Amino acid sequence: MRTALGYKDRLQAHGMRSTVRTLGQEVCRFPDLICGLNGGWKMRDKIRGIYDRHDHMEERRAFMTAWSNALLEAGMEIASV
After folding, report:
1. For the CA atoms of 19, 25, 61, 16, what is the dihedral angle to 10 degrees?
2. How far apart are CA 57 and CA 14, in angstroms?
3. Residue 29 burial (C-beta neighbours within 10 Å; 0-12, 13-18, 19+)
4. Do residues 52 and 33 lie in contact, with contact meaning Cβ atoms separated by under 8 Å?
């Protein structure tokens, strides 16, 4: 996965949510709803949001595992603290 992030090779914080949503769908192959919920977005349909209280936690956990694996496969290194 080779993606240009941020401005002039610097990742900007305001771009992280859209990055998670976009690459979550393209790379990890998760539905937009799950990517959006993990990015902190609320449902667009206010009526559905009122009646649908399912948190999709199992799918969100699976997404975070897939997201983490994708980052590691792309070369992210984990530093020891």
Report:
1. 0
2. 25
3. exposed
4. no
pLDDT tens-place string over residues 34-79 = 998 888 777 677 777 677 778 899 999 999 999 999 989 988 888 8
Q: Is 78 left (phi over 0), alpha (psi -120 to 50) or beta?
A: beta
Cα–Cα distance measured from residue 27 to residue 37, given in angstroms and rounded to the nearest whole number: 17
Residue 63 is predicted with a pLDDT of 96
Confidence (pTM) = 0.71
**pLDDT given for residue 25 in this prediction:** 95
User: Residue 7 forms beta bridges with which residues?
Assistant: 10
In the chain, the N- to C-terminal Cα span, in Å, equals 27
